[in-house]
Amino acid sequence: MASSYSRRRTPSPLPGLFVFLVSAGSLGFAFYAQYVQKFLPCILCLYQRVPYYSATGLAIISLLLIRQPGLSRGMIYLCGLAFAIGAGIAFYHVGVQELWWDGPEMCGGLTSGASNVADLKAQLLAQPIVRCDKIEWKLFGITMPTVNLFFSIVMAVFCFLAPRSSMMRTTGQN
Fold first, then answer.
1. Where is the major localization of this protein (predicted)?
2. For the chain, how big is the Rg over CA atoms in Å?
3. Whether the Cβ atoms of residue 149 and residue 90 lie closer than 8 Å to each other
């Protein structure tokens, strides 16, 4: 019995789709907290969103390049790098909140384009000051930057491991 067995490698869009949904969902939650729940973000909170913007875009590119497995996998690895950077930003923010170190000068401050003292005073009175070391939200004693730290680490690990195991699945044909 001679059978011809050939293997063909076909790309799977699941890692890119998962990263896209998680990133877009995380940004959606951040916007919900900001605009619906009225939790004003500090500058470090805004910085923590940048990796999610990046991962969302890279995941879309990964899905568009699904027929080019090497490039598609590369985009997911870049998502992992974005999440690793996000974990670093989140760790820094946790340290600021826990008073382990000082935050950047912009924390709680206002970058002004005022041309005179009256304009600066008007800007200062109109803008709420959001300090980076102020804890705005907690769940079971866990702050949002702490949640983001662990979430970013998990997503980074997923993005570094997923391309090896699920970007390519082998299908046999008889």
1. membrane
2. 22
3. yes
Beta strands in 4-88 (DSSP E): 6-11
Asked if 51 and 86 touch (Cβ cutoff 8 Å), the reply is: yes
Judge contact between 45 and 79, C-beta under 8 A. Answer: no
At residue 150, φ and ψ (nearest 5 deg) are -70, -40
Q: Each residue's pLDDT tens digit in the chain (174 positions)?
A: 454 444 545 668 889 999 999 999 999 999 998 899 888 888 898 999 999 999 999 999 999 998 888 898 999 999 999 999 999 999 999 998 888 888 777 775 545 556 677 766 666 566 666 777 777 777 777 888 899 999 999 999 999 998 876 644 544 444
* Opening angle at CA 114, ends 113 and 116, nearest 5: 155
Looking at 1.20.1560.10, 1.10.3210.10, 1.20.1550.10, 1.20.1530.20, the CATH number of the domain 9-166 comes to 1.20.1550.10
Cβ atoms < 10 Å from Cβ of 154 = 13
Q: Which position has the token pair 């046999």?
A: 172
Tokens of 49: 């969103």
What whole-number distance in Å separates Cα of residue 2 and Cα of residue 99? 71
**CA–CA dist 20, 24 (Å, integer):** 6
